[in-house]
Amino acid sequence: MVSLADPILRMRRRKARKGQGADIIQKIAMVMAVLLAAAAIFAPLLTPFDPLGQSLLARLRPPLGFERYAAGHLAGTDELGRDVLSRSLHGLRLTLALAFAGAVIGLVVGGTLGLVAGLRRGWVEDGIMALVDMQIAIPFTLVALLVLALMGSSLTVLVFVLGIAGWEQYARIVRGEVRRIAAMPYLDAARTAGAGPLYTAWRHVLPNLVSPLVVQFTLALSNIVILESTLSFLGLGVQPPQPSLGSMVGLGRDYMPTAPWIVLTPALLIVLLTFTVQILGDWLRDRADVRLRER
Amino acid sequence: MIAYLLRLAVKAVVTLFAIVTVTFVATRLSGNPIDTFLGEGLTAEGRQALIDYFELDRSLWHQYIAYLRGVLSGEFGLSFVDRRPVTAVVLERLWPSGQLLLASVALTVVVSVTLGVLAAVYRRSWIGSAVMVVAFAGYAVPSFILAIVMVLTFSYWLNWLPVVGNDTWRHFIMPTIAMSGVLIAALTRFTRNAMLDVLGQDFIRTARAKGLGELRVVLKHGLGNASITVISVIGLQIAGLAAAGSVVVESIFSWPGVGQMLVNAAILRDYPVLQFGVIAVAVAVVAINTLTDIAYALADPRIRLARA
């Protein structure tokens, strides 16, 4: 048992907290996150053009600053004269909505299974952990291909697939944490003092789960964004004419030699999004885990 | 050791069984396969003939047992598109995929081990930070975007490299790099962490104390001991990542491999091909994982003795 009054430990804690300040890249990522979220939420207000609205007189026009620029279409237009910027922002909105829905499903499914596995030992735990091992062994993109080809690429099926994509990480984390916490002396102390199981779960177990789950949720978000845009890029995710960042890159591929802006705008947004989310995820993880800060 | 091998075998068989079952359930969940896959233009007699042939009017259990029997005897049916056995369709695509995989893994190992060792040795200088930035970027940039940007730059703009096919060594450059991006990011991190662990051990201090050169300490004593971890990561993580990556990269570069075939089969709903392709890739991944586990146990007595 380490006493909290231990001066060395206290000093280390203060030092550790000092290291928690964000560096310049992390600060930029936070600003980017706010901007991207705002752009996604307010996409219908920000974009002057209908993302599906075609204009056959203004097809394949380049972005601002190039010859043949069509007034108002800042990032140019695609092969049907649709505004690339409007489509990209609506795509961003859809991609983020799908990623959040998928990450929440993963959190609920994985968290529940992990909780059950951590609390109930024996064959229940063995069975759940065998499922986790299987999920790790099978390349998930293949399962996603199979399910989407068979059940059709509706948004419902897509959200379900994205939700199943990362559940095993949550399950592992929650199970590990629950088992670790269950062995802690303060849980014994709480029980001795007369705390019921619900009280201990709420007061002592849950607060310990919040920070690893927030970290995992953030990292999962970026993985799901990549999975969704990859599936949409391959033509198996979001279906046209509805714009998603991945499908815009996939469909714009045919016009790359003459109109690269159709591909580059959504591609840039995807990379900005994954970089931002992963930098934030790494930052949160470093904050949450004292051991990692030593390196 | 024998108990450990048995455990591995049971785990592999259970995983494969689960994959086979998932593919069955997935195909049956989507309703009557005949309606889904053959669609319109089917006469009533034709429809009945197909139902009889695939025994679709029997119970699900009966179908499942028949399906398992087919899997065990190597009967996976005919491709809807090619009208050839799916095993033949998949087999002829294995070698191109294997070539791309080998090229990517070779590139990944060379780059990642170099970068990982550098990042561990110079972890407090700008070199270490720069390597970690590269590793980070590899995670954050999806492989299809890496591929698209390369195609734009080197094919359409500079006109240096071909986009489609696998005929010459020049065709290998962009697909290999696109496949390797994520793999390099993953393996560099693992190599760096494994090296950091090893370089902190007592025998490294001993090696330095007895007067060995720094290069020899890092490469022989450091990398030599870290290589067990690195090899196991290649087997356990890289195989799965590469399987996922090949799907994307092969379809972008029209690479005549299994990955491209799977995407085409998914879009055309050629479900026997899709089903067997998924099973074949899963078998390959599980086999590589299991072989890695065995090699790991052979190399490290702590594992095979602890669990036996």
Q: Can you describe this structure in just a few lines?
A:
With 295 residues, chain A is mostly helical. Chain A has helices at residues 7-18, 24-41, 43-46, 84-119, 123-137, 140-151, 155-165, 167-182, 185-192, 197-233, 245-252, 261-288, 290-293. Chain A has a domain at 92-294: MetI-like fold (Orthogonal Bundle).
Secondary structure elements and pairings:
The complex is a heterodimer of chains A (295) and B (308).
Chain A: H1 7-18, H2 24-41, H3 43-46, H4 84-119, H5 123-137, H6 140-151, H7 155-165, H8 167-182, H9 185-192, H10 197-233, H11 245-252, H12 261-288, H13 290-293
Helix pairs in contact in A: 2-4, 2-12, 4-5, 4-7, 4-8, 4-10, 4-12, 5-8, 6-7, 8-10, 10-11, 10-12, 11-12
Chain B: H1 2-29, H2 33-37, H3 44-54, H4 60-72, H5 86-121, H6 126-140, H7 143-157, H8 169-199, H9 202-209, H10 214-252, H11 258-268, H12 271-299, H13 301-307
Helix pairs in contact in B: 1-12, 5-6, 5-8, 5-10, 5-12, 6-8, 7-8, 7-10, 8-10, 9-10, 10-11, 10-12, 11-12, 12-13
Structural description of this entry:
The complex is a heterodimer of chains A (295) and B (308). By secondary structure, chain A is mostly helical. Chain A has a domain at 92-294: MetI-like (MetI-like fold, Orthogonal Bundle). Chain A contains 13 helices and no strands. Chain A has helices at 7-18, 24-41, 43-46, 84-119, 123-137, 140-151, 155-165, 167-182, 185-192, 197-233, 245-252, 261-288, 290-293. In chain A, helix 2 packs across helix 12 (261-288), helix 10 runs parallel beside helix 11 (245-252) and helix 10 runs antiparallel to helix 12 (261-288). The longest helix of chain A has 37 residues, at 197-233. The two termini of chain A are 25 Å apart. In chain A, 43% of the residues are buried. With 308 residues, chain B is mostly helical. Chain B has a single domain (86-304), classed as Orthogonal Bundle (MetI-like fold). Chain B is flat, with a radius of gyration of 24 Å. The interface between A and B is large, with 44 and 52 residues. Chain A: This is Peptide/nickel transport system permease protein. Chain A: Residues 92-281 form the ABC transmembrane type-1 domain. Chain A: Its main location: membrane. Chain A: The chain crosses the membrane at residues 21-46, 94-119, 140-167, 259-281.
